Amino acid sequence: MLPVPRHLDSRFESAETDDDVLVEVLYQEFGPSLLRHVRKATGNDLQWAEDVVQETILRAWRNAGRLHREPGLLWAWLLTVARRIVIDGRRKRGARPQEVEPADADAVSVPDASEQALETMIVTDALRDLSEEHREVIEHTYLRDRTISEAAEILGIPPGTVKSRLYYGIRALRRILKERGVAS
Amino acid sequence: MSPSSRGAHEDVTAYALGVLDEEDHQAFESHLMSCEECQAELRELSEVPGLLDAVRRDRSTSLTGPLDDDRTPL
After folding, report:
1. What b/e sequence results for A96-125 when a residue is b if at least 16 CB atoms lie within 10 Å of its CB, and e otherwise?
2. Which among A76, A84, A145 is the nearest to B42, CB-wise?
3. Which tops the pLDDT comparison, A152 or A104?
4. ipTM of the complex
5. Average per-residue pLDDT in chain B?
6. What CATH number does domain A111-179 carry, 2.30.30.40, 3.40.50.2300, 1.10.10.10, 3.30.1490.10?
7. How distant is the Cα of A70 from the closest Cα of chain B, in angstroms?
8. What is the pLDDT of residues A151-172, one digit of tens each?
9. Chain B CB contacts of A68 below 8 Å
């Protein structure tokens, strides 16, 4: 969870905060963290990640009236929106591959490469420790950029079953990751 | 808890992962506004997708092949 400075609470929760100010505050306070998260999802493609962050903030501005002003929830909302934009983008790229290659992934320094490698190993192991049913739905939704209904069709099970397995599977995964010290 | 509200609660995971179909995504956001239980769960879940991205990153560069291979072993 993103540590949110206490001073933000009042700025977000004030009914008087106008939309433009909100966007500015969003950029200032969440922009860098959001970019860091999105870069992980874009395979460290910085240009793509910056576009995603921009689009995410734009959507926040459009939805300003119905946004959660509580910082923790706002952060969760931003992450979800960014994720959907990345998933959409990856599908489009998948449909016409090789059109835009990341300028040079190596040119962008990867901080803490060994820490990332360790994290990858722990998460991979944790997925292996899940039941087949749980692993399968995580694989066929998030890890393959598919929606619930698309995964349901491929797996030949009802969408409600995919959701239910995902619900319990992700909980089980989180429990394992907590035990192994990579989730809080 | 009614069956329909249980359904809405279960959507919190798919929502956090960003994989709900558009209609369900909109419906869940409306539900989320007034459900403190889901708000708490969403906060708890918000780091999970980022951790899963670690696996995705690894596979996209690994020798086991692209994600589109149907049976990429985990």
Report:
1. eeeeeebeeeeeeeeeeeeeeeebbebbee
2. A76
3. A152
4. 0.77
5. 77
6. 1.10.10.10
7. 10
8. 999 999 999 999 999 999 999 9
9. 32-33, 39
